Amino acid sequence: MTRKLVTVTAGMSNPSSTRLLADRLTAAAEEAMVERDEKVEARVVELREVAHDIMNAMTTRVPTGELPGVLSDIADADGIIAVTPVFNASYSGLFKSFFDVIEPGTLDGTPVLIAATGGSPRHSLVLEHALRPMFSYARSVVVPTGVYAASEDWGAGDGGGRELSERIDRAARQLAILATEHTSDKVDPYEEPTSFADLMSGLGT
Amino acid sequence: MQFGIFSVSDVTTDPTTGRTPTEHERIKAMVAIAVKAEEVGLDVFASGEHHNRPFVASSPTTMLGYVAAQTEKLILSTSTTLITTNDPVKIAEDFSMLQHLADGRVDVMMGRGNTGPVYPWFGKDIRQGIPLALENYNLLHRLWREDVVDWEGKFRTPLQGFTSTPRPLDEVPPFVWHGSIRSPEIAEQAAYYGDGFFHNNIFWPATHTRKLISLYRRRFEHYGHGGADQAIVGLGGQVFMRKNSQDAVKEFRPYFDNAPVYGGGPSLEEFTRETPLTVGSPQEVIDRTLGFREMFGDYQRQLFLMDHAGLPLKTVLEQLDLLGEEVVPVLRKEFAAMKPAHVPDAPTHASLLAAKEQAATKTEETR
User: Which of B87, B135, B256 is the mutation pick for testing A, counting most A CBs within 10 A?
Assistant: First the structure.
């Protein structure tokens, strides 16, 4: 079967280091999934392209433009790669807003790889204090390895970027294992509603 | 098919003049709008129920009783009656009373209310919204149909040998619509009872509305009330019209841009593309509304939101003239021509009474 991989990147400029990291993670995850004999359909979503639509959905709940398509791809994803720049010691507002307009329950059980970029390694724990709790709240399955890339990780540091590459591969392999085994037991309440008798159980009649 | 208007009763500053109507002015304006609805040939006026500012409609049956006295044909309804925070005993009595005063021109739309803080003002908890709606309506349904009710439940004191008074007019309870914008449980509830289902689709893309309506239709058939295409569906809509489309857009834009419900969000153009809001000529409103039938099937009731966002009364009355003179007559004809014979109209007091008498005659004959 074909596995769906959706990468969400909240970089502000184009190209951005966030997008670079997102692309490397996507490529590594695709490769790891192909190694596991799975076909992969990958999509990278630049949140800045749907930024206005996200705000429209936030203020009126009406998803405009390309946003409905993005939301349905997220709902169908076997794996998600979520990459944000660090703003004010946390994920960017746009990144958070995007996940705020997703229907509750959508990410239930979905494997997620978390990643962030920043100008300084001092913010690397943003993965653990901001991103991981948010996805845990959404009941996603967050892979153990998160990937944080500071300026020095792009090659200027001691390891010449090798350590970042290793982390990317490790995180991608972990995501690939979960994504290739991902099954959704989500019940669409509009397709299979709770019967009236069950709804009334315990209530006065 | 029934056409009408529904009001949320908001007191909103007119952004073009900076003037805010008083509560008294707004309440009187709602009455004038309801009376006008009958004058221009509409079938239904529905009032919302709210207990928080900036809304004034906290007591819909009081207002509807007053409107009943000034009208002759108009069906008086709600959009919605809070089945969660109102005591079902009082709903049973208020609407039976209204039925008698209005000679049966009454139906009611149940809704939950989505403002958390309102619930505790009435001793309730929004986290119990769905169970409250289910249990309270079940009791209400019995109170209107059984002379003497013994009842015990989770959310109110038990009843022993209770008779709600007055009894429904001609022993025919008001027809009930269940309004919900996103809850499959409410579509299921409406389907179980064979009641109507109203989707106030004005803030929703058609794909979402269709999911909920198809669910209701499917389950209506499942519970044996008829075919899925015979289920009783109502839809919302919001329009602003002028003869020329550009004039409508120009005049409505400041209201759209400043309205508490959409201001700061999508542009008027985006919003009209994604939701039923139509700002343009009467013909555009006709085309858009006919499109609802293609998306959701033959339906029985179309309610328009006309008096909101600070639009002055004079403008609203002009809008109702356009709706009554240029839009609804065309829609009536077009919808009627397309509706298959086996698809029923929305039940009214007269049709429910006739059905009841027919059933009684049949029972008599088989004896």
Answer: B135
Tens of pLDDT, residues A101-116: 999 999 999 999 999 9
Chain position carrying tokens 């390895």: A145
Instruction: Find chain A residues with C-beta within 8 A of B187's C-beta.
Output: 193
Contact at CB, A59 and B185, closer than 8 angstroms? no
Q: Tell me the pLDDT of chain B averaged across its residues.
A: 96
Query: What is the total count of domains within chain B?
Result: 1
Collapsing DSSP to helix, strand or coil, A165 comes out as helix
For residue A42, the model assigns a pLDDT of 97
Look at residue B116 and tell me whether its pLDDT is greater than 90. Answer: yes
Cβ pair B274, B266 in contact under 8 A: yes
The reply to whether residue A59 touches residue B271, judged by beta carbons under 8 angstroms, is: no
Q: What is the DSSP letter of B347?
A: P
Which residues in chain B are contacts of A60 at CB distance < 8 A?
Answer: 203, 261-262, 265-266, 271
Residues of B in contact with A68 (CB under 8 A): 205, 207
Given a contact cutoff of 8 angstroms between Cβ atoms, the answer to whether B58 and B30 are in contact is: no
Of B153, B205, B212, nearest to A204 by CB-CB distance is B153
Give the model's confidence band at B362: pLDDT under 50 very low, under 70 low, under 90 confident, else very high. confident
Q: Does A187 touch chain B (CB under 8 A)?
A: no
B224-241 confidence digits (pLDDT tens):
999 999 999 999 999 999
* Token couple for A175: 């995501």
Domain spans in chain A, listed from the N-terminal domain onward? 2-199
Listed in sequence order, the DSSP H helices in chain B are 23-39, 60-69, 88-101, 118-121, 129-145, 184-193, 206-222, 245-258, 268-274, 282-296, 313-322, 328-338, 349-366
Domain holding B77: CATH number? Answer: 3.20.20.30
The fold adopted by the segment(s) A2-199 is Rossmann fold (3.40.50)
Which of B134, B211, B262 is facing A200, going by the closest CB pair? B134
Q: Which ipTM did the prediction report?
A: 0.91
* CB within 8 Å: A60 and B266: yes
Reported as a pLDDT band with limits 50, 70 and 90, residue B259 is: confident
Q: What is the mean pLDDT of residues A52-63?
A: 91
**Residue range of the domain that includes B184:** 2-366
Distance CA B29, CA B7 (A): 11
A194–B188 CB contact, under 8 Å: yes
Residue A198 contacts B, CB cutoff 8 Å: no
Instruction: Assess contact for B343 and B230: CB atoms under 8 A.
Output: yes
pLDDT in tens, A130-162: 999 999 999 999 999 999 999 888 887 676 788
Interface of B with A (CB under 8 A): 130-131, 134-135, 138-139, 151-155, 184-185, 187-189, 191-192, 203-205, 207, 211-212, 214-215, 219, 223, 261-262, 264-266, 270-271, 273-275
Contact call for residues A143 and A180 (beta carbons, < 8 A): no
* Cα separation, B200 vs B95, whole angstroms: 22
